[in-house]
């Protein structure tokens, strides 16, 4: 159920914001002769095929986001259950060793019912890493399709074109930046959501409250990890469709963007 719910939630949310994702890709991957404002990027996407232009590469997003979101939710909740179960076992063993009913009762009363913040961070980081490792080639293919002057064709054709030009590692360009961003993003996002979600008497918060908390935590996390997102996409598109190879890796891309464009270049 967690796997299915996570996948459906991710697919629906990405479909709603797909036009903005296309615009953001155009903004983050300028060419030497073509830079866009937000309005210009939207116009370019529309001229690239109308509504279909705004959703270019979205098929790859859907194929990727369903397993990615599902893996994130399943790994996080699975680790959460395991951590709490292990804690219960340790407390049960301590109570049995004490061999006193009063001590056992006290132990049960003091038993934490949720993860500590460092445990949330660890579980969220593991969830992000698992999803990134499994689904990154699809994300790389989507960027190749949706950047300005991107590779044309179906998802399979674009993936084959990337492999033909750069070998199998071409599907993993920018992976380090993406992995770091996903680990940080999921660790902070899950923690912020879990900490912020109200738990009055064990009753779950209403869906709209949980949605608002999730949106706020996601906005904060995106702001913090945006520089890594820019680096990832620029590494993914360099060398494609006649673009020059400008960066030697994640750190080199960070340095060059900061030197040439300043902090604003990451946003």
From TrEMBL:
Solcar repeat copies, ranges: 1-82, 115-199, 205-267
SUPFAM superfamilies recorded: Mitochondrial carrier
Membrane-topology descriptor: Multi-pass membrane protein
GO cellular component, one term: membrane
Repressor as UniProt keyword: no
InterPro entries: MCP (IPR002067), MCP_dom_sf (IPR023395), MCP_transmembrane (IPR018108)
GO biological process: transmembrane transport
A Pfam family assignment: Mito_carr
Keyword annotations of the record: Membrane, Repeat, Transmembrane, Transport
Record family assignment: Belongs to the mitochondrial carrier (TC 2.A.29) family.
Protein name: ADP,ATP carrier protein
Organism: Chlorella variabilis
């Amino acid at each position: 159920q967690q796997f299915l719910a996570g996948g459906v939630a991710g697919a629906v949310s990405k479909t709603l914001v797909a036009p903005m994702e296309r615009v953001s890709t155009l903004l983050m991957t300028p060419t030497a002769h073509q830079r866009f404002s937000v309005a210009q990027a939207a116009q370019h996407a529309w001229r690239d095929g109308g509504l279909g232009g705004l959703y270019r590469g979205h098929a790859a997003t859907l194929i990727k986001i369903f397993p990615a979101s599902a893996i994130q939710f399943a790994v996080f909740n699975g680790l959460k259950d395991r951590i709490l179960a292990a804690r219960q076992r340790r407390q049960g063993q301590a109570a049995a060793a004490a061999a006193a009913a009063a001590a056992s009762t006290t132990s049960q009363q003091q038993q934490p019912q949720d993860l500590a913040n460092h445990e949330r961070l660890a579980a969220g980081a593991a969830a992000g890493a698992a999803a990134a490792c499994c689904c990154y080639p699809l994300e790389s293919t989507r960027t190749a399709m949706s950047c300005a002057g991107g590779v044309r064709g179906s998802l399979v054709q674009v993936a084959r074109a990337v492999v033909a030009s750069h070998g199998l590692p071409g599907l993993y360009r920018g992976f380090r930046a993406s992995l770091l961003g996903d680990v940080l993003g999921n660790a902070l996002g899950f923690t912020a959501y879990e900490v912020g979600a109200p738990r009055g008497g064990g009753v779950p918060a209403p869906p709209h409250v949980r949605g608002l908390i999730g949106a706020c935590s996601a906005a904060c996390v995106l702001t913090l990890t945006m520089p890594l997102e820019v680096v990832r996409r620029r590494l993914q598109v360099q060398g494609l469709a006649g673009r020059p190879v400008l960066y030697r890796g994640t750190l080199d891309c960070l340095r060059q963007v900061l030197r040439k464009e300043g902090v604003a270049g990451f946003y």
